[in-house]
Amino acid sequence: MSEIDVLEEARRKLGLSVGDLWFRYFALGGMSTALEVEAVLYGALVATSHDRDLLAVALNERFAEQGHDHPVPYAGDEASRP
Amino acid sequence: MSSFREFAVSTAFGSGRLVVEVQGEVDLLTAPTLGAVLGALVDQRHLDVVLDLARLQFMDASGVQIVADTAERLQAAGGTLSVRSAPALTLRLLAITAVDQVVLIEQADPAGAGLGPEQRGDDHSLSVPSERADLPRNLTQLGSIPASHEVIDGALRLVTSLASATVEGADGVSVTLSRHGRLATVASSDDTILRMDQHQYETGEGPCLSAAASGHWFHSESLAEEDRWPEFTPLALEEGISSILSTPLMAADRPVGALNIYSGTERAFGTHQQELAALFATQASRILIDGGADVSNEQMQARIVGALLSRETIARAQGILMARERVTAEAAAALLHRSARTAEVTVIQQAAELVAPTHGDDDPDRGARP
Q1: N or C: which end of chain A has fewer CB within 10 A?
Q2: Inter-chain contact B348–A28, Cβ cutoff 8 Å?
Q3: What pTM was computed for the model?
Q4: Across the interface, do A26 and B337 touch by the CB < 8 Å criterion?
Q5: For residue B169, which of B72, B261, B47 has the smallest C-alpha distance?
Q6: pLDDT of residue B361
Q7: By the CB < 8 Å criterion, does A31 face chain B?
Q8: Which residue of chain B comes nearest to A30, CA vs CA?
Q9: Are residues B155 and B267 in the same domain?
Q10: Closest CA to B254 of B185, B300, B208, B217
Q11: B279 with B194, same domain?
Q12: Phi and psi at residue B130, to the nearest 5°
């Protein structure tokens, strides 16, 4: 589950708590509970690509706030490439 | 949440005994249901009750408390609670809490007891280092946990008892929480410890208050040499307390209280005890977060309102994209994310731009595509 590792790795790099990540995810329209998000990060639950994108956006926007690029890949990145 | 979908309790008679089979996860959400079932059976004067945990996936501290309460009620009535086929981690939790001394442990299949399903990727249960197998079994403390209708407070009391029994050198443990803007003790192992907390509230100083206010832990190795809390320290020494370790409880990255460990011995707490304290504080914090105990404060409410406004704007933007591009909600979300990235703005900024009246449906090329 490389995507899950990427999300959790990014969360740790940002020093963002699961609760804060969930809040950002929720604000973006996410529908899963904080416990389910935590399960995704730990690899215990496989997220839909929609949920994964929302988590990636939440993480990347935090990276952007800190002046970084968007290091977390989106689920659609592969498919959308020409 | 999955615990609601999977959790089930069924009762049956087997070999002349009443067998209660538990399936799925016993946690803060489901423990009250299990408690109600077991309570009803005790009320009906069933004396020989078997709790079959073969299909249990996970039991947290709140579940253990239900088991302990039921066992003690049955014992008082002259009966017995047997726990059958419990997963390994549950057995360990029962041993740590000394609940295994008030129930009859039956392992139907010793080979199968090696690894319970909760062993996998579960970070929620208390993981106490295995070398602590020799820990003091403090039955009286566990027995002193009063039955409570407040599930959160009950779970916190159990954490307090666990911490008290597990942290070597601890003579007492309390949990302090900020409620309605005031600090209050929600769980304490005895009256001396409760008074120690109250001395701090009254003098307005002490490690518990410092930890709860700052979000950092405070350790006083020797109160006799302590000068940070001049009013509180003499009162603590009078009560026979010599060292204190206060670890903050965090909810959404904000301190909301503290887990306080008191000892009558100087320098009672080393690195190992500090690690254990942090572990229990994490567990207590998680109970608070899962229990939603923190939504009463204004900062949190503002955050929730902000998140809901953001969701509404994003939903409206998605609606516009769905109509315009004739795509599903999820595809519209992906479009919105991509266009925000291209425009180098946040998703909420992009959504606000899209729903703004000046850039509405009359300008279909705007905002939708990279």
Answers
A1: C
A2: yes
A3: 0.39
A4: no
A5: B261
A6: 47
A7: no
A8: B311
A9: yes
A10: B300
A11: yes
A12: -70, -20
